[in-house]
Amino acid sequence: MIVQVRICVPAELSEVTLRTCREQAGTAEVALVLGGSVVPEGDLIEVHIPRESVEELLEKLGVLKVQEKGSIVVSMPELVLSRRADAAERAAPGDGADALIWDEVSRQTGEDSRLTWSYLAFLVLATQLAAIGIVNDSPIAIVGAMAVGPEFGPLAALAVALARRQWALGRRAALALAVGFPVAMLLAALTAWLSVPLGLFPRDTLDTGSAVEFIYHPGPYSLIVAVLAGTAGMLSVIGRRSAALIGVFISVTTVPAAGYVAVALVLGEFQKAAGSALQLLLNLVGIVAAAVAVLLFYRVVTRRLPESTARTLRRQLRRTRG
Which residues pair with 33 in a beta bridge? Predict the structure, then answer.
């Protein structure tokens, strides 16, 4: 899994940055284009490196303050045919699928955590589908709601914010959850309230639905499922695996629980509504806690940049400044 790192640096930082890239363990190729950057003025450096070596290189470039003076772009080519790249992957420690790039995780979760109209629309649609599945005792509709639910993004962002103390990201994710779920539940309740007089479902519908009983019966397995979902979700972010199926797993008891609260309140089933609300709360907390635990585990087991290396880079940076 080869990654391309494109670095734009001012001329005075070019030499030390180039040396750092060439000396990075696992580097397959390094290209330099003098004066290749017009705005801002500077040089372009392109590096091909295994994914498992990217985080260490980014830490070194951070010490050199490259992202402040220039820019760093990390991308993943679709296909790389190179014996040097193959040898670099074999030489790099670890495996690319298990490599954690912190900036990548923060950026990805940050983009998915914003309170946007599309996020609200998907959450409203998912909650409506869940409510339809509940009143019709339809597991298929509930699974459809799980597939549509977009709450995975804010939950993952909240976990990253807690693990890295990025409070701005945490506030944005918390806002998306705090606004999105109440709005979706309110609209689902309104739909249910309008449906009862129309005879679309009877008032005792919650007494006959056997397929949805798990939604309002919080228990030990509710927390276990939440922990498993949070773990799987964060591993999918780290490993760049498909988030679609993971999103279904995350929504096992979040979106259906939100829909059940709305329907139960309209039908006067306050005890079931309270149980479902507790289910929702347990799962949100469990998912975030498990995701944070995964990130902290990776922080412990991932090799960090030695302080001696950081001091050496700082001395080189001071010499370039004269």
Answer: 44
Residues 6+ apart with CB under 8 A from 146: 126, 247, 248, 249, 251, 252, 255, 256
Residues 238 and 304: their CA atoms lie apart, in Å, by 17
Span 40-46, average pLDDT? 91
- Residue 168 CA to residue 161 CA, distance in Å, equals 8
Instruction: Report residue 211 as tokens.
Output: 């397929």
Q: Which of 173, 180, 174 is nearest to 148 (CA)?
A: 180
Half-sphere exposure at residue 35, Cβ-oriented, CA atoms within 13 angstroms = 0
Kindly list the strands in the beta sheet with 2-9, ordered across the sheet, starting from the edge strand earlier in the chain: 29-37, 42-50, 2-9, 71-75
Phi and psi at 250, nearest 5°, equal -60, -35
| Separation CA 145–CA 252 (nearest Å) | 9
Cα distance between residue 155 and residue 147, in whole Å: 16
Give the pTM.
Answer: 0.82
